Amino acid sequence: MKLKISRRHLKNRMSDLPHIVIIGGGFGGVAAARAFKRENVRVTLIDKNNYHLFQPLLYQVATGGLNASDIAQPIRRIFRKQDNVQVIMGNVVEVQAEEKNVLLEDGTHLDFDFLVIAAGMKNAYFGNDLWEKNAPGLKSIRDSLEIRRKVYAAYEEAERRAQNGETVDSWLTFCVVGGGATGVELAGALREIGLETLKRDFRSISSHKIRVILIEGGDRLVAGFHPSLSEKVAKRLRKIGVEVFLNTRVSDIDNEGLTTSDQRIDARTVVWAAGVAAADLAATASAPTDRRGRLVVNSDLSVIGHSEVFAVGDIAQMMTAAGDEVPGMAQGAIQSAKHAAKNILATLADGPRTDFVYKDKGSMAAIGRNAAVVETSSVKMFGFFAWLFWWLLHIYFIVGYRNRAFTFISWIWNYLTFGRGARLITEVPSGHKIPTTEDYLTQVVSNSRSK
Amino acid sequence: MKLKISRRHLKNRMSDLPHIVIIGGGFGGVAAARAFKRENVRVTLIDKNNYHLFQPLLYQVATGGLNASDIAQPIRRIFRKQDNVQVIMGNVVEVQAEEKNVLLEDGTHLDFDFLVIAAGMKNAYFGNDLWEKNAPGLKSIRDSLEIRRKVYAAYEEAERRAQNGETVDSWLTFCVVGGGATGVELAGALREIGLETLKRDFRSISSHKIRVILIEGGDRLVAGFHPSLSEKVAKRLRKIGVEVFLNTRVSDIDNEGLTTSDQRIDARTVVWAAGVAAADLAATASAPTDRRGRLVVNSDLSVIGHSEVFAVGDIAQMMTAAGDEVPGMAQGAIQSAKHAAKNILATLADGPRTDFVYKDKGSMAAIGRNAAVVETSSVKMFGFFAWLFWWLLHIYFIVGYRNRAFTFISWIWNYLTFGRGARLITEVPSGHKIPTTEDYLTQVVSNSRSK
């Protein structure tokens, strides 16, 4: 059913074509929309932001190594040549599966013939939502800029207070909660900031005072990897001066530090990398969800009870052939999105749907300069060559030539100079409230905000 | 009195040395602090932000062509090798010239032997402060990100509304108030966004509908230049499709547009480039100011009545030999800052102070792609070669090798691809409230913000 038709022709016929709505412009949403290229359908992709984000490098924005725009690409730029995709910046607040439409925050509805939910995850604080304002997570550009602000403002505050003779230990203590890939990468980068980047920039504080603490509840770091690699990661982190606390649960986080089962740690900067849960939207879909709020899917990736509604990526609870959960990573999102698109096209052609089979292509994480851990079904790597491999693969997968080029150049620059070019404090603390899309789009500033 | 002494030695002796406090890390403040390099003094440079900003290119951040970090350099990075400079991120709220100290927002005082006020300008709305929330100016990174958000959000909103069949003309109308260099550069860049950057990215809006309007109260654009050049600038802007309204005064700005003496213009995006006034700090110095709030200075650049307090850059009302005002540009700030430093050193050496003589090195402004206007005492240039000259000079004057390299590469990239890599909508409307330094440094989010 592949047809090549002129743009004008396509436009005139558009409204007759099957309409596929995709919620989310992350790895899943973009892969799904791309899978409909040159197919005879009409696609609408809705995202809360105007950009697609390369999340695996978000920790580098949070630590000032990259600009936000180096890892973000305007979604409509990605689809400028794919005429059957319409991109909308908007926030879907409800999936009305029965009525086959979605409700947007601005009150409008959008009808669909097929829906692909790829709205991703949010930070989850195990029921302690109040922790969020003191310990931002790392899911969005806004999160990363807030962490960047906290980190560099803590150094500025320490310098100012040290001059007045105050004790500044708590300002120079940086805690990362959660020892998965994100936590490990963040802790490594935070340690480098203290060791290398800021070494000569401050007059009143000493780099010996700087502490970076990584707190993990389980008995090893990067639990998704082989135990021998977890060992190496912990060893490497300790070697560069990160304090690694295993089997340590956080019982409270306040604005001056945190409390674990063993001790109190005074730390003005706490970053949350311990948990995520499905975006709120999953709960509105009138379909079963699991304990982390993710939509349970059939083997064809449709949600239970609605065969035209698909869930892909980490908002879906997907299973591997071995019966394990598919990890919430880019490759899972991309593979499932492509598969859902295939099943939609099969249905349109009155053919049979097929079962989703996840292919594990491996995982990796960088630990500061010069070290990374890489594991696939056939290879376990640790060290410098793993780091080079990490480096090349991330460059390769960034969307857009410009981002690829600029990330490449930034990394070489940062590597050679130990610098972090994007260490600006530009964000104002946003507080607990997460801005909605309508907030971003608002041209009129409400009174409550302007005072 | 030049001595080369070891860093440790210097530290021990520090408190005995004359203490020079510099307020502001812009062109003036940085030039002043640099002028004390290897001199036997102790310098404290205070700025509200942690970065020095290359303001002439701020309009490119506002239009998504450059990243904020490309034109900003951490101040302490600039002085990492100049041991006698201490950098503090803080906000001076009062100059207590009699007591020879300054009061910071956090309540601490800082004593000085000599003070250099280089706090710059703020946006001024001719008494109509309420206009600010609908028409942001262009003085800070925050301003530029707010303008960027407004511009790109207007396109997103237009696309969304056009799909629902609404009229979207006001969303596609962009007004710049003020036809000086900043206004001209902004209008040119805004027009390019409509013409080139977004041409293929939207499905429902047509680029023919996009209007960019430049409104100037006087009878010609870029009044600082020769009238023949003003002509050429206006002609060029009109050629690329900017509507230029001369002799047009704005009588009101609201959230849906603006009203001039002749007509009502519906425009969701209005940018203010019409006026600046001295930073509020000037008024606290117990010294005479002019009608724009600037500190009146003696010929040695000290403020009236306080020979140890100097004002430099555009917070000072400085005169040329011909009796004209020194224009508020980088070169005036740099020259006056160096001169104030020289007079401070002369005073310390019990020598005589000298009078400041401003050397006009010319002015320039870019008009979109391929055209600029350049005027010095001996040369008047317009067109492509002026634009190349503009380009080279801006690259050359950006502080920091990294920023120079990245701006260079970004520009070549943008020029060849018609792209604007940094077109992200990441800011939330801030409203009228301008955040203070303490806001940025705050680790604890107050309750009023978090709701």
Give the topology.
The structure is a homodimer of 451-residue chains.
Chain A: H1 7-13, E1 19-23, H2 27-35, E2 42-47, E3 51-53, H3 58-62, E4 72-74, H4 75-78, E5 85-89, E6 92-96, E7 101-104, E8 109-111, E9 114-117, E10 121-123, H5 141-163, E11 173-177, H6 181-197, E12 211-215, H7 227-239, E13 242-245, E14 250-254, E15 257-260, E16 264-266, E17 269-272, E18 276-278, E19 295-296, E20 302-303, E21 306-311, E22 316-317, H8 330-348, E23 363-366, E24 372-375, E25 380-383, H9 384-397, H10 401-417, H11 437-441, H12 447-450
Parallel strand pairs in A: 1-2, 1-9, 2-5, 9-21, 11-12, 11-17, 12-13, 19-22
Antiparallel strand pairs in A: 3-4, 6-7, 7-8, 10-18, 14-15, 15-16, 20-21, 23-24, 24-25
Helix pairs in contact in A: 2-8
Would you give an account of this structure?
Two copies of one chain form a homodimer. Chain A is of the alpha/beta class. In chain A, 30% of the residues lie in helices and 22% in strands. Chain A is built from twelve helices and 25 strands. In chain A, strands 5-2-1-9-21-20 form a six-stranded mixed beta sheet, with helices on one face. In chain A, strands 13-12-11-17 form a four-stranded parallel beta sheet. Chain A has a three-stranded antiparallel beta sheet with strand order 6-7-8, with no helix packed on it. In chain A, helix 2 runs parallel beside helix 8. The longest helix of chain A is centred in the middle third of the chain and has 23 residues, at 141-163. The radius of gyration of chain A is 23 Å and the shape is globular. Residues 1-10 and 444-451 of chain A have low confidence and may be disordered. At the A-B interface, strand 5, helix 5, helix 10 and helix 11 of A face strand 5, helix 5, helix 10 and helix 11 of B.
